[in-house]
Amino acid sequence: MTTQVMTLEEYADMIGELAADWDGDQPAVLIGDVTGNVSVNAKEGYSKYGPVGYAQECFEGNGVFELGQHGDRRFFGTMLFAAEDLAEEARAQLEADKEVTA
Fold it and tell me: Is the pLDDT of residue 58 over 80?
């Protein structure tokens, strides 16, 4: 199983490049919360948090423990959507956020 490993700064650069090169209107970024019982378990060669697997060689020790105890899940469940695919209230929030940053 392949897992991309990069620094937070590299990740920020990648997101910046994606935004700069995006054709048309910028997409909305939705970040969901982890809800309910999420199983963390080991498979052959990778550890799995819910439906997402991470290569075992990324962890010094037990990947299940690392994922369950040390993973920062603030960006877990992140997806991009075109603004027109969102509800009117979500689109209004996007517009309000644009005005604040302008």
Answer: yes
Rounded to 5°, angle at Cα 80 from 1 and 93: 150
Q: Which residue from 55, 49, 43, 46 is spatially nearest to 5, judged by alpha carbons?
A: 55
* 80, 28 contact by CB (below 8 A): yes
A 10 A CB-CB count for 61 gives 7
pTM over 0.90? The answer is no
Closest by alpha carbon to 47, among 74, 69, 17? 69
Query: Environment class of residue 55 by beta-carbon count within 10 Å: exposed (0-12), middle (13-18) or buried (19+)?
Result: middle
Q: CB of 56 within 8 A of CB of 45? A: yes
Which DSSP symbol is given to 23? -
Alpha-carbon span 7 to 54, nearest angstrom: 16
